[in-house]
């Protein structure tokens, strides 16, 4: 039975959650803690699959708790459920949580998110691999894309369109941007698999804060020595090329934007496994090259899951849309024909008012 731990210093909130989730009592094992120390003690006594925490708590806030959970219990999926948070704490939380939900939230929304995560957890039967994937706070970016982004956000008056061009060219930047834009951290969460829309929703100011203040975007050169940087660099370059071709070959539509985003993230599982498994993944890849065997079969045999499922899993627990995660799992993206919204950079308070997150 899946085990979920809720943490909030407001007893009334915990009581409300208990009532809300009573319908799941025969399917989930649910525990509650009213402070971070109690939550860590509970996690130390027995294993849990998911931790859902508030942000604004005395003594130990949500970001501090999740930092401890990441270090001590990396296999746990980390979710924030919070109403208000100042920018500094919210930025810290976005770097530590897999998902960021608003409080209060509709029961169907919360239960739906938890059901989806639980379903995804079942796809990764290997506990060691689950720990490694759940520990990933970001995916590496190509050095040139990372440096271009940092340089641009430091430029006064940089615009969202220029930022989107860079983000849409790099797997690591795109994945983290979509994760952030789809969360309650954004005032108007992006529910689609569209990098350009995600950048517009966040806006240059918030992306600058994410890039400079939190370091949620990472450069390939920051990986440890066990990672196969040459292979990861090759994967990032090929994904970027596919995304450019998809964007150039299709009309300006929602379908084109989503198709290009899929092409950018199609091999996200290979990058995730390369980072998470290090030398073990390099050995699998080298063996496949030498004997001509299918990499997906070799991955499934060695670690219990292929890169497609690993990528779908990671993007799923990061809260990216199911249409995209299923496409990654199947290596095929369904095409729709919705028109792509036209954006401009003339000030939108909704995009830039991120000092307080309140629902």
Which SSEs are present, and which pair or pack?
Elements: E1 3-7, H1 11-20, E2 29-33, H2 36-45, E3 50-53, H3 62-72, E4 77-82, H4 87-96, E5 99-102, H5 107-121, H6 127-135, E6 140-141, H7 143-153, H8 160-167, H9 171-181, H10 195-214, E7 218-219, H11 229-249, H12 254-265, H13 268-277, H14 279-291, H15 295-303, H16 307-317, H17 322-330, H18 349-352
Parallel strand pairs: 1-2, 1-3, 3-4, 4-5, 6-7
H-E order: EHEHEHEHEHHEHHHHEHHHHHHHH
Main sheet: which strands, in order across? 2-1-3-4-5
Q: What is the assigned CATH homologous superfamily of the largest domain? A: Hypothetical protein af1432
What is the overall pLDDT average?
A: 86
Biggest pleated-sheet summary: 5 strands, parallel
Q: Any idea what the radius of gyration is?
A: 20 Å
What is the level-2 CATH architecture name of the largest domain?
Orthogonal Bundle
Low-confidence stretches: 335-359
Taken as a percent bin, the fraction of beta residues is: 5-15%
Q: How many structural domains in the coordinates?
A: 2
> What spatial form do the alpha-carbon principal axes imply?
globular
* Beginning-to-end CA distance, first to last residue: 31 Å
CATH class of the largest domain reads Mainly Alpha
What is the strand tally?
Answer: 7
